[in-house]
Amino acid sequence: MSEFLAEVIGTMILIIFGSGVVAGVVLKDSKAEGSGWIVITIAWGLAVTMAVYAVGSFSGAHINPAVTLGLASVGEFSWAKVPLYILAQIIGAIIGAGIVFLNYLPHWRRTEDQGAKLAVFSTGPAVRSPFSNLVSEIIGTAVLVMGLLFIGANQFTEGLNPLIVGALIIAIGMSLGGATGYAINPARDLGPRIAHALLPIPGKGSSDWSYAWVPIVGPIFGGIYGAVFYKAIFTGEYNLLFWALSVVMAIILIGAANAELKKGHTLANDIEDNLVGENERNENDVAEKSI
């Protein structure tokens, strides 16, 4: 099997199981309806495990452009192969999403919630705040890539590595995924989002392209920074890329924190103004009654 086909199949498997569990949980009248976040995170971890078992010996089972770019940025993967890998991953994700659509055919028309239908295919934030959502995706993907490098630095019983990688995905989902749905993979979000836009899903709404840049830019930056950070801190390979990305990371973090603090200050002022206005109205009511 070629590396290209392996990445197509591996990413397809990832989406079949990953988007499939989301469909089971959120679509109306599914037997798994309402199963919740824990079921989703465990199934996504197992999805990665199965994909790695399937194609790991053929392509390394990157199944994620952030992983491919992260490894290439530290010399662990050839830059010449990067475009082909990313193309294969996106194609595989689109195919996988199409298979999930077919599997749940009767449930799309029974589900009125357009957001739930979109959630089967792509991620969305619990609280829409693009700068902070970007930070969440950066952190999650940096942890992912560092975790993969941690795992690669250890010797396990043959065949155990995919299970450890799956456990890493479950841990990221349970601990960091609640903010954005943890795309941590541009192909995992972009491919199914394209499928959502193209497929004849009954009663579907917008594909939310205004948010689509977050689960692309965040994971790409996070994947590269996670790999560079690992090499710098754990192997002492400090270089210009590490320092440049660290400065950018600091700017992003400070900017996101500042934006949220401003929102909090504005909210506090609004609450205070409302309370003052309510008190004034109460005082006027009392004055009128006394007259």
Number of helices: 11
- The strand count comes to 0
| Low-pLDDT residue spans | none
Examine the secondary-structure arrangement and name the CATH architecture of the largest domain: Up-down Bundle
The CATH topology of the largest domain is given as: Glycerol uptake facilitator protein
Average pLDDT taken over every residue? 92
Membrane topology: Multi-pass membrane protein
InterPro entries: Aquaporin-like, MIP, MIP/Aquaporin, MIP_CS
Family: Belongs to the MIP/aquaporin (TC 1.A.8) family.
Protein name: Aquaporin
Secondary-structure map:
Blueprint: H1 3-26, H2 37-59, H3 65-73, H4 82-103, H5 105-110, H6 114-121, H7 130-152, H8 161-176, H9 186-198, H10 214-235, H11 240-290
Describe this structure in words.
It is a single chain. This protein is an all-alpha fold and 291 residues long. It has two domains: 3-238, Glycerol uptake facilitator protein; 246-291. 75% of the residues lie in helices and 0% in strands. It has eleven helices and no strands. Helix 1 (3-26) packs parallel to helix 4. The longest helix has 51 residues, at 240-290. The protein is globular, with a radius of gyration of 22 Å. It starts with a helix and ends with a helix. The model has no long low-confidence stretch (mean pLDDT 92). It is found in: Membrane. It is a multi-pass membrane protein. InterPro entries: Aquaporin-like, MIP, MIP/Aquaporin, MIP_CS. Belongs to the MIP/aquaporin (TC 1.A.8) family.
